[in-house]
Amino acid sequence: MTSHVLFALPALLFFLVFAVLPLLGVVVLSFTSWNGIGAIEFTGLVSWKDALTRETTWHGLLLVLFMIAATWLLQTPLSILLGTFLAGQQKYRNVLAVMYFLPMLLSSAAIAITFKSLLDPNFGIPSGLNLAFLKQNWLGDSFLVWVVLLAIIAWQFIPFHTLIYQGAVRQIPQTMYEAAQIDGAGRVRQFFSITLPQLKYTLITSSTLMVVGALTYFDIIFVLTQGGPGKSTRILPLDMYLTGFRGNEMGVASSLAVILVVLGLGLALAVQRLGGKDASASQMEGA
User: How far apart are CA 256 and CA 192, in angstroms?
Assistant: First the structure.
């Protein structure tokens, strides 16, 4: 027992120093007024009151909730379908799996810079191909900018979730599919009657990662739109950054950070609760 504790001690210390202590520091700063340079002044709930009465806070919160819902609805079906397809044993599917995973290896900032250049109305694809339907103000229209953002996020992160579903599908016993074929079930019926039910806990895990990940989409939006046009993409994480490092209101920004942590924890627990996930349950339960 002692040896197990010693092996876990480095990881626990790492978690304490780089996760718990910074979080406690942010909580303490949320009760202060600090411009990031001068002396820290404890002002009680002043920063919290300021954060909760700002229009940008609630606007950013609504946008981040919209992003969570939109990214989940867009990524989940595609990830499940691609993961099921790539779970086949054919060699060409393994090659496709490697190609699909490539976007995950790229930096989010680099991706945002690339797409910003490609969508430039004067020097990008719209001008180069001279196609009328591409010649739109993609990043200057409050609706089109969300189409672009969701498409880029899906392109980058669907491969990750596809890999998760691919591994889960390969764990399903082939005997279940063989029995279904004997009963006359086609591929579509097998998918809905065998594959999807067996992916229940994988779906919960993937959904949790999507929900929490949607609270960290800062770099793509900051590089691509900086919250524009207007405030149409100023989600709460970006609002926190702009408030702290451009508005020099670290106390208010810390309050927003605490809200994000509580929101992420609450949503993750809600997904686990709605999915009815049991820590002792198995992916193969019922097989």
Answer: 42
Residue 261 tokens read as: 């942590």
Give the number of other Cβ atoms within 10 Å of residue 192's Cβ. Answer: 10
Residue 73 to residue 249: CA distance in whole angstroms: 35
The model carries a pTM of 0.88
Contacts of 196 (CB under 8 A, 6+ apart): 80
At 205 the pLDDT is 93
| DSSP states of the chain | -HHHHHHHHHHHHHHIIIIIHHHHHHHHHTTEE--SSS--EE-TTHHHHHHHT-HHHHHHHHHHHHHHHHHHHHHHHHHHHHHHHHTS--HHHHHHHHHHHGGGGS-HHHHHHHHHHHT-TTTSHHHHHT-GGG-S-TTTSTTHHHHHHHHHHHHHHHHHHHHHHHHHHHTS-HHHHHHHHHTT--HHHHIIIIIHHHTHHHHHHHHHHHHHHHTTTTHHHHHHTTT-STTTT--HHHHHHIIIIIS--HHHHHHHHHHHHHHHHHHHHHHHHHHT--TT--TTTT-
Q: What is the pLDDT of residue 250?
A: 94
First to last CA, the chain: 35
Task: Specify which residues 41 forms β-bridges with.
Answer: 33
Tokens representing 202 are 């994988």
Would you say residue 279 has pLDDT above 70?
no
61 neighbors 236 (Cβ within 8 angstroms)? yes
Structure tokens at 273: 């609760």
Alpha-carbon distance of 70 to 145, in angstroms, equals 14
CB 240 within 8 A of CB 252: no
